[in-house]
């Protein structure tokens, strides 16, 4: 129990470190979130307003802060006895990024961090990360949903269902990603950014 709580807390604190707000001033000498319309301290704005190096470092670190606590937790646990605590270890970095204690609970959308938490399950459980990536590819290439706001909601919603049905992983993994997905979607819905009209196109239809 103590170990579980320690990793949940560690994951939340890791998630609460917003690297776009760190690398923006260091590299681009600006607050990339404040320069953007959506005020999001994430990878896209780090690239757009901070440049390639700022964006790349933000992307790597946002993914890493999801990978590290999850991977360290599963490495030190018996894979035959993963309980519900694993769900909260998976969700904690995502919640930390959306509601960061270091930034008055004003965080980002946690898309990169969510990928990171699933990548942290490697090599024991590979399918969850592949399914999330596949949903983004599907809604970007096959059934093209735009703008990115709606594509992200569709991808996380679909991935939550697919991971539950086809991930071949403990139930705790499905629950953890469901919590993460709900957190991301809630953040997107509550975003004050101006939202363009939803557009859906089928790849083979013009």
Please describe what this structure looks like.
By secondary structure, the chain is mainly alpha-helical. The chain has one domain (2-202). Helices cover 67% and strands 4% of the residues. A two-stranded antiparallel ribbon has the order 1-2. The protein is globular, with a radius of gyration of 17 Å.
Question: What is the residue-mean pLDDT, rounded to a whole number?
Answer: 91
Radius of gyration: 17 Å
Helical segment count: 10
Strands, count? 2
The first-to-last residue Cα distance is 56 Å
Strand/helix succession:
HHHHHHHHEHHE
The domain count comes to 1
Helical/strand content category: mainly alpha
The largest β sheet comes out as: 2 strands, antiparallel
**Percent range for β-strand residues:** under 5%
Give the strand line-up of the largest sheet: 1-2
Low-confidence stretches are none
Shape: globular
Helix content: 55-70%
Q: Which key phrases capture this entry?
A:
single chain, 206 residues, mainly alpha, two-stranded antiparallel sheet, 10 helices, 2 strands
């Amino acid at each position: 129990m103590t170990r579980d709580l320690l990793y949940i807390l560690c994951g939340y604190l890791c998630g609460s470190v917003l690297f776009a707000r760190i690398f923006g001033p260091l590299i681009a000498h600006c607050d990339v979130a404040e320069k953007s319309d959506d005020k999001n301290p994430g990878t896209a704005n780090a690239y757009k307003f901070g440049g390639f190096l700022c964006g790349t470092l933000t992307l790597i670190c946002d993914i890493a802060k999801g990978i590290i606590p999850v991977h360290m937790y599963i490495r030190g646990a018996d894979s035959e006895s993963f309980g519900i605590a694993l769900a909260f270890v998976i969700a904690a970095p995502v919640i930390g990024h959306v509601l960061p204690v270091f930034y008055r609970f004003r965080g980002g959308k946690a898309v990169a961090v969510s990928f990171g938490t699933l990548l942290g399950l490697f090599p024991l459980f590979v399918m969850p990360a592949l399914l999330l990536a596949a949903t983004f590819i599907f809604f970007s290439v096959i059934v093209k949903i735009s703008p990115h706001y709606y594509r992200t909601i569709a991808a996380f919603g679909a991935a939550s269902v697919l991971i539950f049905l086809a991930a071949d992983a403990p139930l705790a993994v499905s629950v953890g990603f469901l919590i993460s997905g709900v957190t991301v979607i809630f953040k997107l819905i509550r975003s004050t950014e101006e939202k363009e009209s939803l557009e859906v196109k089928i790849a083979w239809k013009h």
